[in-house]
């Protein structure tokens, strides 16, 4: 057993939020230790050579950026480039995939013509009006994301002052499905809008708990506009810059260091190179999911969990683990490397335009609801609603010069309504194969040629395709039940009666232990690649006197 020097702050988990917290605290002169279980920092925000012997670096888990504030980029001097995609989305009509809706951010008349071509001309103005109404609310709330939490009443006042009273009612006070159905008539157009409420969230449009509304708000709030950009160099470029900022500011970053316990008094146990260590600090910041933190507080290693063969701790759940933190993930992730983009059944649109934004497949309003009901009954949805992103069109640098010259392209597929309840340790291998087949069927339903014929092969002749179930994601990057948000999302404001007596409470990062803060996606205003959780936890520390330890 080795006992380390004391630190001012210990950060458990080296995902992008932990790196951001380390950078902020180190720049403020604090002595910081960051511990990461894997052999590199970044967590889910990494780039990887997913296929052996093939020089393509994929954003393997997280893939787009919307919620990273310019303030954080400037504060930390991050040298990152975010590339805007010209096309918002492309959505074939499932019953007639020779026709599709293409939303072109740079050509309003072409977008209007596309609405007309699918028989949705009446929805063109309504679609734009609905987005404008939502934008009034997101622009009002976006600046609060890196400030102490407003209360619900304060957030509502900001919305009303910005002329977003109707949007507040639609997005915050009633199921978002009501507003979508009221504003839009066409089944496909309704589905395109609804998908933003369902990414990673197992919900229906009209669910009373409004979890779909919170997901919708977070998908539209980034930058106040909801634009989702491609990080040039891959997602690893974002985490790489945060790591550089933290190290240059003086943070100590130890990889291959598995945290084994988090105890009262700011005592953290971890194992590195087969040796057990203990570190102590007045502040411990948790970049792991709240459920994982609860295991550590019970003395179970961070890598343990239901998916790894370890049961959740018995007894009452600590305050870090509220019911919202137990929500399951609901997606399958598939990465592919193709020889070229596939031909479309839609002859009016080029593959470069179709794949240049978000490519929606089998995601009409009716299909999304049917998929939910099928999954809730224990079945893989058929057809499987899917979204596709082609990063290499926007950022060819993730491919080697040889692959670029050959016309190769990456595809990332995100399949919706695949809840973790469908996956077990016993059926994971079979489910992975079933889900991959379902994704390919869904994709092929709108293509003029089977995508399997376009897969590149690695030097061993294996096709370049990988599929990640919720259990695979949990095992790889520690997200319980494969939830990409570390649990259910929370409103970016506090309820009017919520305690806001301490900096940690005001910044939305508090636990029941005054020395222990949440700094990851499990913090309020967490989720996505934003560094907001890390920023807000660091601000809470810097505004606080050393806490009084619990007895």
Q: Nearest-angstrom radius of gyration?
A: 23 Å
Would you report the number of β strands?
Answer: 20
Binned, the helix content reads: 25-40%
Distance between the termini: 26 Å
Task: State the strand order across the main sheet.
Answer: 8-7-16-17-18-15-19
User: Beta-strand level of the residues, as a percent range?
Assistant: 15-25%
Low confidence ranges: 306-317
Q: What structural class do the secondary elements suggest? A: alpha/beta
Q: What value does the average pLDDT take?
A: 94
Largest sheet entry: 7 strands, mixed
What would you call the shape? globular
What is the number of helical segments per DSSP (H or I, 4+ residues)? 19
Commentary on this structure:
By secondary structure, the chain is α/β, with parallel strands linked by helices. Helix content is 33%, strand content 17%. A seven-stranded mixed beta sheet has the order 8-7-16-17-18-15-19, with helices on both faces. Strand 12 (267-272) and strand 13 (275-280) form a beta hairpin. Residues 306-317 have low confidence and may be disordered.
Task: Offer a quick outline of the entry.
By secondary structure, the chain is of the alpha/beta class. 33% of the residues lie in helices and 17% in strands.
Descriptive terms for the model:
7-stranded mixed β-sheet; alpha/beta; globular; 19 helices; 551 residues; 5-stranded parallel β-sheet
List the helices and strands and how they pair.
Elements: E1 2-6, E2 9-12, H1 16-27, E3 32-35, E4 47-49, E5 57-59, H2 70-76, E6 82-83, E7 87-93, E8 96-104, H3 108-117, H4 121-141, H5 152-161, H6 165-173, H7 176-183, H8 187-194, H9 211-221, E9 230-231, H10 235-248, E10 252-254, E11 257-263, E12 267-272, E13 275-280, E14 283-286, H11 290-297, E15 331-338, H12 351-354, E16 358-361, H13 365-376, E17 386-389, H14 391-394, H15 401-406, E18 409-416, H16 428-444, E19 465-468, H17 470-477, H18 503-506, E20 516-518, H19 532-542
Parallel strand pairs: 1-13, 2-3, 2-14, 3-10, 7-16, 14-20
Antiparallel strand pairs: 4-5, 6-9, 7-8, 11-12, 12-13, 15-18, 15-19, 16-17, 17-18
Helix pairs in contact: 1-10, 1-19, 3-4, 4-5, 4-6, 5-6, 8-13
């Amino acid at each position: 057993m080795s006992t380390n020097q004391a630190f001012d702050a210990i950060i458990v988990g080296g995902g992008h939020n932990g790196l951001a917290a380390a950078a902020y605290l180190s720049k403020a002169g604090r002595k910081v230790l960051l511990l990461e279980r894997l052999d590199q920092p970044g967590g889910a925000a990494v780039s990887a050579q997913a296929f052996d012997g093939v020089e393509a670096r994929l954003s393997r888990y997280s893939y787009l950026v919307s919620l990273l504030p310019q303030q954080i980029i400037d504060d930390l001097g991050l040298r990152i480039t975010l590339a805007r995609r010209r096309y918002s989305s492309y959505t074939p009509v499932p019953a007639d995939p020779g026709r599709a809706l293409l939303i072109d951010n740079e050509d309003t008349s072409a977008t209007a013509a596309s609405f007309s071509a699918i028989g949705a001309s009446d929805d063109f103005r309504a679609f734009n009006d609905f987005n404008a109404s939502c934008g009034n609310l997101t622009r009002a709330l976006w600046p609060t994301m890196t400030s102490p939490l407003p209360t619900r009443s304060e957030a509502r006042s900001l919305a009303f002052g910005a002329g977003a009273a109707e949007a507040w009612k639609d997005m915050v006070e009633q199921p978002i499905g009501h507003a979508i159905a009221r504003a839009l008539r066409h089944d496909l157009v309704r589905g395109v809008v609804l998908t933003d409420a369902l990414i990673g969230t197992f919900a229906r449009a009209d669910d009373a708990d409004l979890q779909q509304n919170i997901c919708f708000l977070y998908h539209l709030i980034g930058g106040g506009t909801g634009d989702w950009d491609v990080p040039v160099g891959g997602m690893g470029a974002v985490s790489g810059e945060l790591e550089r900022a933290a190290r240059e500011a003086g943070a100590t970053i130890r990889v291959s260091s598995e945290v084994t316990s988090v105890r009262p008094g700011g005592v953290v146990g971890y194992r590195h190179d087969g040796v057990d260590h203990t570190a102590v600090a007045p502040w411990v910041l948790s970049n792991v999911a709240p459920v994982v933190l609860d295991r550590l507080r019970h003395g179970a290693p961070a890598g343990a969990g239901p998916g790894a063969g370890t049961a959740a701790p018995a007894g009452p759940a600590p305050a870090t683990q509220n019911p919202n933190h137990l929500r399951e993930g609901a997606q399958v992730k598939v990465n592919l490397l193709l020889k070229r983009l596939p031909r479309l059944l839609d002859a009016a649109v080029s593959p470069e335009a179709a794949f240049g934004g978000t490519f929606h497949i089998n995601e009409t309003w009716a299909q999304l609801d049917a998929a939910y009901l099928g999954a809730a009954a224990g079945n893989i949805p058929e057809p499987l609603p899917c979204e596709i992103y082609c990063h290499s069109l926007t950022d060819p640098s993730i491919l080697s010069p040889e692959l670029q010259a050959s016309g190769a392209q990456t595809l990332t597929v995100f399949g919706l309504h695949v809840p973790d309840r469908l996956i077990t340790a016993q059926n994971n291998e079979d489910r992975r194969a079933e889900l991959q087949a379902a994704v390919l069927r869904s994709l092929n339903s709108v293509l003029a040629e089977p995508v399997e014929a376009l897969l590149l092969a690695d030097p061993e002749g294996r096709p370049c395709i990988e599929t990640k179930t919720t259990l695979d994601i949990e095992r790889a990057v520690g997200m319980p039940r494969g939830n990409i948000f570390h649990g259910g999302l929370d409103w970016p404001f506090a309820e009017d009666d919520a305690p806001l007596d301490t900096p940690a409470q005001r910044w939305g990062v508090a636990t029941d232990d005054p020395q222990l803060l949440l700094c990851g996606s499990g913090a309020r205003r967490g989720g996505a690649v934003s560094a907001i959780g890390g920023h807000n936890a660091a601000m809470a520390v810097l505004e606080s006197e050393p806490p009084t330890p619990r007895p």
